[in-house]
Amino acid sequence: MSLPRRSYDPRRVCLLPLPPLPAFIRTNKRTLGIYLSGAAFALGWWVFLDAVLLSSISMRAPPEDEPWSPPATSMGFSDWLPGLCATLGMIVVNLIDKQLLGDAGGTFAFGGGSGGGWGEGGVQWRARMFLFVGFALLAGGLAGSFTVLTVKYLVPVLPPGYEYYGVANVAQNGALMLSTILLWMSQSAEGEYEYQLHI
Question: Where, per UniProt, does this protein localize (predicted)?
Answer without folding.
Answer: Membrane
